Amino acid sequence: MNTSNTPHDDFFKQLMRDPQNVRDFIRGFLPPELGRRIDLDSIRYKDRERHPKRHRKQHLDLVLNCRLDGQEAEIYLLFEHKSNPDKATLLQMLSYCVGLWDTNIHVERRDPVPVIPVLFYHGRDPLSLPPRFGHYFKVDESLRGYLVDFGYALFNTADFQEEEIAARCYNNLYLATALMAMKSIFVSLAEMEPTLRQVLQLDEHHRLLIYEYMVTNKDVEPEEFEQALKKIGGTDMPTLAERWMEQGRKEGERKGERKGKLEGQGVLLKRQLHRRFGNIMDIRIQERLRNATPEQFELWADRILDAKSIEEIFAEEDK
What we know:
Layout: H1 7-16, H2 19-29, H3 32-35, E1 38-45, E2 49-50, E3 58-59, E4 62-68, E5 74-82, H4 89-106, E6 115-121, H5 141-144, E7 153-156, H6 162-168, H7 173-184, H8 193-199, H9 204-217, H10 222-231, H11 237-277, H12 283-290, H13 294-304, H14 310-314
Parallel strand pairs: 5-6, 6-7
Antiparallel strand pairs: 1-4, 2-3, 4-5
Helix pairs in contact: 6-7, 7-8, 7-9, 11-13
């Protein structure tokens, strides 16, 4: 079974990793004045990991490079997925835009590329974000023109009935079913029966992907889910159990490899720190090194080059 800490996010990224799903989603659900103008054949996936020198490493949900109206001028579509309302969502999207523009200017040596933010939301609770970033600020209208401001395209599953989702997906059965599953994931298992019946129309590979997403994100036992499937004629649970066993085996192997990589990164960083600053006596720093992630090791290793003290390397972690 998927043991990720971000199963909703993982499923969204897996869904949008397929270019056809992305094209059909853009045509069906982005505002018409935007969706009609995007050259769907020009869409390319852009590296989602941004790591400018002045910014922390960022893992963006989905960034697409594309053209408008068939012209050579390009834009980025920045997709941000949320399954819980978060007041800082627009601030997070702005930080991603800044990271992309920073790379345009300082790494790629060109003018910043226009970015159109797209928010994909399917949470249990209603979304209560302002329609524009500038609306966060309560100021006199004479000052509003000086504020940082941007709008965003919103896809909220609560705005669509299942029938409308299916009609907007251009006969893309998997995309429609996946969106229905994300829309209904927070209701009871009994209420999910229409979506489960829709899943039965898919091929085995896509059925299992959606079953796994459902079981991972619902507070039900696999046996309870199996009974719900049998009620409507589904017989995939043994196959799904075999899939989870194989995933568990592979995950065990990956953890073994990851442990070895972390140990190697830790040894290298300790040597670098010792060479520059002598023995590490600070107990807090020793604890951080024992519990660090690969991303933290990379961040600290980058700082060693310019840091004037060992405290400066770890200072931002204290905030």
